[in-house]
Design brief:
The complex is a heterodimer of chains A (299) and B (282). Chain A has helices at 10-16, 23-45, 68-76, 83-99, 103-108, 111-124, 137-152, 162-172, 177-191, 195-200, 202-211, 231-235, 242-247, 266-270; strands at 50-53, 56-59, 63-66, 216-219, 277-280, 291-292, 295-296. Chain A is mostly helical and 299 residues long. Chain A is globular and about 55 Å long. Chain B has helices at 5-39, 56-62, 68-72, 108-112, 151-155, 193-197, 210-213, 224-231, 272-278; strands at 47-48, 79-80, 92-95, 132-135, 163-169, 177-183, 205-208, 250-253, 257-260. Classes of the chains: A mainly alpha (299), B alpha+beta (282).
């Protein structure tokens, strides 16, 4: 038995202060809440900033944004997209290529706070074990949603999708959508660690595909300073993405290139040695490709 | 990596079993999802889609559940379906009895739709066909009972075209007129104002989806009087004059009714009943 480790981030708080050890978390929660509020001040106070929801939105009467995953399902179910949705989709894809595909998961998606809470509670309650899901599960799910869209001629995944269910629920009325969100929470708490967002969700899988070309990535400019406290692994919702970059597996460069990295920045927060930092991918363009479970960096 | 044949065999077995597990697990989930999605494409009769909505099978692939139509409806009549409701989650609908479509002239809901799930070619709200009003209950309709309720007729935005009042004899009193509301499908937009305003406890006139409300004649059916008009004359040559089979000494004229044949003319008239009985007409 190993000795009881201190709470994750204790070193970082001691070294940098509480605020600096939580700055990306605070920014991220602000972003999640801010985006939600931008949708909500319309129906609540009649102040129309954004209309619609995460599937399609129209900001200040000029900016259309379309969820590319949804539009692809619509296309597969037999519907040619309209001009406005195509403009919206190009803007969204461009945005996520810049910001890192799965930054959608950690900076925008309303389910993220729910599963983060489940992960936090799981850690606090010392819940261990549960089923182990394959890293490829989300891609099987993604493929399944496409096949079902083709076979049924409907955007079938929208009937269950917890992401749009929760977001739409908060803005247009929840109904029994909360049961699905509660299901996701309990699944992550008791059934599988980081189960939904980390293994199952096809929305995240889709955005990770965009992320293969992402510009904004987490760098490890001071990876030699790592003192193996393991705090970054403990907070990372996709802990497999850190190791190659941190431990230079197969000569990997000091940058997290795995498309499953959600750019949440928690590793930056909890590292007392300031190993991590955000930065553009550019400078590492010609660095050898890394191979790590089920993912490959773009060429 | 080792090239030991035993270990590659084990790796292959592992790969196949992992793949099979994934395919079966996710596949089973997909079958459930697909069947659920299929079921939900049948819209419940009380839920009416916004104006210009594509037929239901196309609508569920075109609508991206964004709620823009809901937002741009100035009367807030539209809702997005919740997961517990028996239709595609997140798709827009309204319930006529609660709040009918106000038929805005500029059709803002259609304009707001980014995907043309609400057909953008619909510019004139009077051409919308959200459903069809049907006077479903003749037993409770006040006009059928002989009263001059007329509310559905009065509130109809396409008054005198979509709903007309058709006078009929009140057989119960024998001396009054029933003003029967008749819906005409070539003008009814399915807005639901009639259903909303119907004063009976449960609406006697209801807007139903077109596929439920509208009958269709078989393609080979021809309406004789219309064919005659089209052809400019009778299609049967020579045109047979209708004859009434009357008792002896009686005659019938259209519009005048039965009367006694005036004296003297009786012998000129044939005796059709006798002829009919003798078999040469049957």
């Amino acid at each position: 038995m190993s000795a009881v480790r201190p709470k994750v981030g204790t070193d970082a708080i001691a070294e940098k202060g509480w605020f600096a050890a939580h700055q990306w978390l605070i920014l991220r929660r602000t972003s999640q809440l801010g985006i939600l509020m931008a949708f909500l001040v319309g129906p609540w106070f009649g102040l129309w900033i954004v209309k619609g929801n995460l599937n399609y939105s129209y900001t200040l009467g000029v900016l259309p944004l379309t969820d590319p995953y949804l539009l692809l399902q619509s296309l597969l179910s037999g519907r040619m997209p309209e001009v406005l949705t195509l403009i919206g989709v190009s803007i969204t894809v461009a945005l996520y290529v810049l910001a890192g595909g799965r930054s959608y998961c950690s900076w925008v998606c309303p389910v993220n706070p729910v599963t983060d809470l489940a992960a936090w509670l799981r850690q606090r309650l010392g819940l261990k074990g549960g089923i182990r899901l394959s890293a490829s599960t989300r891609f099987w799910m993604l493929g399944m949603t496409f096949v079902v869209a083709v076979l049924t001629g409907t955007i079938a995944w929208e009937m269950l999708n917890p992401v749009s269910m929760l977001h739409r629920g908060l803005i247009f009325g929840m109904g029994f959508a909360w049961t699905i969100i509660a299901g996701v929470f309990l699944f992550d708490l008791f059934v599988a660690q980081r189960g939904w967002c980390g293994h199952v969700c096809p929305v995240g899988a889709f955005y990770s595909l965009i992320g293969k070309a992402a510009v904004l990535r987490v760098h490890l400019p001071k990876r030699d300073d790592c003192n193996n406290c393991m705090d970054c692994y403990a907070v990372c919702p996709e802990f497999k993405v850190i190791k190659p970059a941190l431990k230079a597996v197969d000569g990997a460069p000091p940058i997290i290139l795995d498309a499953q990295c959600t750019n949440c920045g928690r590793c930056i927060d909890v590292c007392s040695k300031d190993v991590f930092a955000f930065g553009p991918r550019k400078q590492y363009r010609n660095i050898p490709v890394i191979h790590f479970p089920s993912t490959r960096s773009p060429s | 990596m080792t090239t030991n044949p035993q270990s590659t065999d084990a790796a292959r077995r592992q790969f196949i079993s992992d793949t099979a597990r994934m395919a079966c697990g996710v596949g089973l989930f997909g079958v459930g999802l697909g069947l659920y999605a299929k079921h939900a494409t049948a819209l419940p009769p009380a839920a009416i889609r916004p104006p210009g909505a594509l037929p239901e099978d196309q609508f569920s692939s075109a609508c991206i559940r964004c709620g823009m139509c809901v937002r741009d409806c100035p009367y807030d009549i539209l809702h997005l379906a919740k997961p517990e409701q028996p239709m595609s989650t997140g798709t827009p609908y309204f319930v006529a009895r609660q709040a009918p479509c106000e038929m805005c002239e500029n059709v803002p809901c259609v304009k707001a739709c980014p995907t043309a799930a609400l057909d953008h070619s619909l510019k004139d709200i009077n051409k919308a066909r959200m459903g069809l009003a049907v006077l479903v209950d003749h037993e409770t309709c006040l006009n059928f009972l002989g009263l001059r309720c007329d509310i559905c007729y009065r509130v109809c935005p396409v008054i005198d075209k979509a709903i007309t009042l058709d006078p009929q004899t009140n057989a119960r009193t024998g001396k009054h007129t029933l003003f029967i509301p008749v819906v005409h499908s070539d003008h009814c937009t399915g807005c639901g104002k009639c259903e909303k305003s119907c004063p009976t406890e449960v609406a006697s006139i209801k807007v139903l989806p077109l596929f439920m409300a509208k009958g269709q004649l078989s393609a080979h059916y021809r309406l004789g009087w219309m064919e005659k008009e089209k052809a400019g004359g009778s299609l049967v040559a020579p045109e047979v004059e209708h004859r009434y089979n009357m008792p002896d000494g009686m005659q019938y004229e259209h519009g005048k009714g039965l009367s006694v044949v005036p004296q003297g003319a009786a012998s000129a008239a044939p005796a059709p009943t006798v002829k009919a009985l003798s078999g040469d007409r049957l």
